[in-house]
TrEMBL record:
Domain of life: Eukaryota
Protein name per the record: Metallo-dependent hydrolase
PANTHER family cross-referenced by the UniProt entry: DEOXYRIBONUCLEASE TATDN1, TATD FAMILY DEOXYRIBONUCLEASE
Family to which this protein belongs: Belongs to the metallo-dependent hydrolases superfamily. TatD-type hydrolase family.
Keyword vocabulary terms for this entry: Hydrolase, Metal-binding, Nuclease
Residues making up the signal peptide according to the UniProt record: none
Molecular function (Gene Ontology), one example: 3'-5'-DNA exonuclease activity
Length: 476
């Protein structure tokens, strides 16, 4: 399995990976939307296709977008401000500090679909003038990602500038379509920019900031009414770690077993990986049967069909309910899983589901449960989906340390009576007994229940009881 230390160059996509371009666009649109006293979902605004070269896009798109949304024509001043807004699009909170850390160990390269002038504005603004080792834009190449020419051009430039071959270049990006798939076609490794549970061990961006405070996390969860936790397993190595935790806290913790789609490639890089996974599961079921609650997190995330099917076969052998992952592939997911469900009497849970109401209802008709958390409260479409989850299929989760609740006008009224959370500090100023800002914890579970109850027009007690009973019935 590849390690980060195997690479000498990190090649970054910018917008969507280091820069929150969606948030920047939405903020830039607010003056016109507020003037017209209208409301739109995030998707209504962002899912517009204009098919223009990027250098002309911002200048051209604004009046067209306003027209499509049915708003009054923007003023000349609004038009100018929007077309120049790229300079003010925010970086994600830890972007600049992470780049400063990474440049001590890697050459840092930009491969972006914008023009040089646009990137220069962003770099001087929210990226705080950070000095990349090499900047390559669509303007330099004459084509846009996912065109393979962009990646070949980048690799040739890296070889010429630094004498580093493709095998030591890691493409770092958010978009599967624009970056990960074409990167693989030209022989590049790629990673999605996500956080890991290292946060619970005091590790942030590869640096140890404090000792593990897992015991305190459990205590806070109990204080806020969360009595059970199911620890999600991401890969085989993580399964061994989870088992030790579950054995240490048997009254509160259980675990899943499986390989997350993000780690699916590991299965086929190591001989006998699936067999070792099966043997580990069988041993746990024999020696510690109450520890293992479900098979997962498995599922379909773009092209990982083979890993999904192979692990479904293991789940059937172990007679475990499923802990499932679905991202942007619901119809394919249903087609694959449907023949397996008659062999799985306890069915499974689609966790952290943030899709549409129609997709949710299709999954429910298969007999699957639906679990939601803070990431499912972000859009009007998601809130409408939650209102329609049948109570006998609903489960609640936090997905800590990720998926924290982000306050918005759409849900804030449901949390008016929420208990204040414990004090929190940034990880660099960590104090034992306090939460870490930006790190979600299970003590927020009651807030998840309060939002869901508010959306469904039910009491918090009724929603919490239903979700608890559904979880116990499925996972024990």
């Amino acid at each position: 399995m590849s390690q980060l230390s195997d690479y000498r160059v990190l090649c970054f996509d910018i917008y969507g990976t280091l820069i929150d371009w969606e948030g920047g666009i939405l903020v830039a649109l607010l003056p016109t939307i507020e003037t017209c006293n209208m409301k739109f979902s995030r998707e209504e605004i962002l899912n517009q296709d204009f098919g223009l070269p990027y250098p002309k896009l911002l200048a051209t798109v604004y009046p067209t977008l306003i027209l499509r949304l049915g708003l009054a024509a923007p003023s000349p001043d609004e038009h100018i401000k929007f077309s120049e807004s790229i300079a003010h699009w925010p970086a994600f909170p830890d972007t600049v500090e992470a780049l400063k850390y990474l440049r001590n160990y890697y050459k840092l390269v930009v491969l972006s679909n914008v023009d040089r002038a646009s990137f220069a504005k962003t770099n001087a603004g929210s990226l705080q003038g950070f000095q990349f080792d090499l900047v390559i834009t669509a303007e330099d190449i004459g084509s846009y990602k996912p065109d393979l020419r962009n990646f070949v051009y980048m690799l040739d430039s890296v070889k010429s500038a630094f004498g580093i071959d493709a095998g030591q270049v890691l493409q770092t990006a958010q978009s599967q379509f624009h970056d990960h798939h074409p990167a693989r076609e030209v022989g590049l490794k790629s990673v999605a920019v996500t956080y890991t549970a290292d946060q619970f061990h005091g590790i942030y961006r590869g640096k140890k900031c404090h000792e593990s405070d897992w015991a305190e996390v459990l205590d806070r969860a109990r204080q806020y009414g969360c009595e059970k936790m199911m620890l999600r397993t991401m890969n085989l190595a993580g399964a061994y770690q989870n088992l030790e935790v579950v054995k240490r806290y048997p009254d509160m913790c259980t675990m899943t077993l499986g390989v997350h789609p993000y780690h699916a490639a590991e299965i086929y890089k190591e001989d006998g990986y699936l067999e070792r996974l099966r043997e580990f599961g069988q041993q746990v079921l024999e020696e510690h049967p109450t520890c293992l609650a479900a098979f997962g997190e498995i599922g379909l995330d773009y092209e990982y069909q083979r890993a999904f099917e192979d692990q479904l076969d293991l789940a059937v052998q172990m007679k475990l309910p499923l802990f499932l992952h679905v991202r942007s592939s619901c119809s394919e997911f249903i087609e694959i899983i449907k023949p397996y469900l008659p062999k799985l009497p306890r069915g499974g849970l689609v966790h952290s589901f943030a899709g549409s109401k129609d997709e949710m209802l299709q999954l429910v008709r298969l007999g699957l449960g639906i679990s939601v958390n803070g990431v499912c409260f972000r859009t009007d479409e998601q809130l409408e989906m939650i209102r329609h989850i049948p109570l006998d299929r609903l489960q609640l989760e936090t997905d800590a340390p990720w998926c924290e609740i982000v306050m918005s006008d759409a849900i804030s009224m449901y949390l008016d009576n929420a208990r204040p959370l414990p004090a929190s500090r940034k990880h660099g100023k960590f104090v034992f007994g306090q939460m870490v800002k930006g790190r979600n914890e299970s003590c927020t579970m009651e807030r998840v229940a309060m939002v869901v109850a508010g959306l469904k027009g039910l009491s918090v007690g009724r929603v919490a009881d239903a979700a608890w009973n559904n979880s116990v019935r499925m996972f024990g």
